[in-house]
Q: What sequence folds into this?
């Protein structure tokens, strides 16, 4: 099976072109095996590039633990680059079917290849039942969440997948790697949740570390950065255009007043291709 490894701001995935390859018979098991950083290729998960009768392509995304996720902001940018650079869809604007719905992407080029992609991520979801969270709020913003013997102020939003955002003065391993997994599996989140720890640097500038549902700490999270942008506006911490600094690089966010959509812009990079033994 031919695969390609790609990354967006260090958030790396293994891509399988199902336009050319047959669909893996066990994508969850494949994701666990191929994502392993010691015994596999190493990645935050697996993304299948599939045909669609509604859009230019369909994205199916599996976390490193094999769980299937609805959406991935960094992953979809790389998928768009693959579609264009590999000659599957040669258009500067693409549509991709996801668990979040059909999303539109505008491509930017350097040297004839895609270098950066802007994704229309749609409207944020703030209703508790749709996120989903059992915390009672539409929206639940800067409300209390008890974790063990501590209570934190958290905010909940979905960008097609659930996010829990916590503002902190210092981004520490103890918080991200200690608290992150506890919140991911907290009873308040029936489908688990991604967790973003945020330091506000100014009205257009934040620094973020992310504990991703099913993958652990990652170098970046596109939907998470979008969720941070939304909550930062709702709480008066930033303006609607903001740069998010993540360990893997910077992402540009814009929560538009015009259509209430969040726009995510960031890099897309192909790392290498190879063959994975089938069966």
A:
């Amino acid at each position: 099976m031919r695969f390609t490894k790609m990354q967006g701001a260090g958030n790396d995935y293994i891509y399988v072109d199902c336009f050319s390859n047959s669909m893996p018979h066990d994508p969850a098991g494949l994701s666990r095996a191929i994502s392993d950083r010691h015994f596999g290729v190493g990645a935050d998960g697996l993304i299948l590039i599939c045909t669609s009768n509604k859009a230019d392509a369909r994205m199916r995304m599996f976390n490193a633990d094999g769980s299937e996720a609805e959406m991935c902001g960094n992953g979809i940018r790389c998928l768009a680059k693959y579609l264009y650079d590999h000659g599957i869809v040669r258009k500067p604007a693409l549509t991709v079917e996801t668990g979040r719905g059909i999303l539109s992407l505008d491509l930017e080029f350097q040297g004839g290849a895609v270098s950066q992609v802007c994704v229309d991520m749609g409207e944020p979801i703030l209703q508790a039942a749709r996120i989903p969270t059992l915390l009672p709020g539409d929206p639940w913003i800067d409300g209390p969440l008890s974790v063990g013997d501590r209570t934190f102020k958290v905010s909940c939003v979905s960008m097609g997948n659930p996010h829990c955002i916590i503002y902190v003065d210092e981004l520490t391993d103890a918080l991200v790697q200690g608290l992150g997994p506890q919140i991911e599996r907290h009873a308040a989140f029936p489908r688990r949740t991604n967790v973003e720890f945020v330091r506000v640097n100014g009205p257009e500038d934040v620094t973020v570390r992310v504990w991703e549902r099913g993958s652990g700490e990652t170098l970046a999270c596109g939907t998470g950065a979008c969720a941070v942008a939304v909550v930062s506006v709702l709480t008066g911490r930033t303006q609607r255009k903001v740069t998010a600094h993540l360990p893997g690089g910077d992402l540009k966010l814009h929560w538009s007043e015009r259509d209430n959509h969040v726009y995510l812009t960031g890099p897309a990079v192909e790392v290498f291709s190879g063959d994975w033994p089938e069966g």
Notes: The chain has two domains: 2-120+266-275, 128-260. The mean pLDDT is 97.
